[in-house]
Design brief:
With about 220 residues, the chain is of the alpha/beta class. Helix content is about 25%, strand content about 30%.
């Protein structure tokens, strides 16, 4: 029986989920204006393990959201994940935060563009098709009225950037799904299970979060 503990702390949402064979069985999370990850994360982990009726020794792996996102949030999540992996001698799995965010959307056509707020009009973004295959790599960019102008398909924007971006991203094919705001650990379950089955893990000693904190005003690469 494969149990994976999934940890998501890249944004304001402090989220922990326990998955069995790729299916989420328990999730605890809270999104607050003031980051509460340091206080909440270990409490959530302890509560979930207790409620599931298992022990930490029953875990097959720990999965953590790798970023991009909040520097402090990522450090807290990755440090907790590494500590558990060291103590339990189990693998560490890293999951793309923007893929976790995009996983909350189910569409049959078009493109999904998850965006995580950075500062001012800057965002971390990527582009996925409905099968969650990445069509453009993660980048840091400044959003203007010309952003994604080459995209002809219907676009679904998700993340915590709607309030500041929907006034400039106004083309007819632009749709903001404002109910999908933060990535959640419960969306990591199948992603982490697939990585465990394919032995797609990271080195516990050397793994670092993907901060992507250097912004450059450039024209993003065209989509393939």
């Amino acid at each position: 029986m494969s149990y994976i503990l999934n940890i998501e702390t890249a944004t304001k949402n402090c989220s922990v989920a326990l998955a069995k064979e790729g299916q989420t069985i328990l999730c605890k999370e809270i999104a607050e204006e003031g980051y509460s990850h340091a206080e909440r994360l270990h409490v959530f982990i302890e509560e979930i393990i207790k409620e599931a009726g298992i022990t930490l020794q029953d875990l097959s792996a720990i999965a953590v959201s790798q970023g991009p996102g909040s520097y402090t949030g990522l450090r807290i999540g990755v440090s907790a994940a590494k500590g558990l992996c060291y103590a339990l001698d189990i693998p560490l799995i890293a999951i793309d935060t923007l893929q976790v965010l995009a996983s909350q959307v189910t569409v049959s056509s078009g493109l999904i563009i998850p965006m995580i707020d950075a500062r001012r009009m800057e965002v971390y973004s990527a582009v996925f098709n409905p099968n969650l295959e990445k069509k453009r790599e993660v980048c840091a960019e400044i959003i203007t009225e010309n952003s994604f102008e080459e995209v002809q398909e219907t676009v679904y924007f998700v993340g915590d950037c709607a309030e500041k971006c929907k006034s400039v991203l106004t083309k007819k094919n632009h749709n903001f799904l404002e109910h999908v705001k933060y990535p959640s650990a419960k969306e990591m379950s199948m992603l982490s299970y697939h990585k465990l089955k394919t032995s797609d893990t990271v080195d516990v000693a050397y793994f670092e979060p993907y901060y992507l904190k250097d912004f450059m005003i450039t024209t993003p690469k065209k989509l393939a």
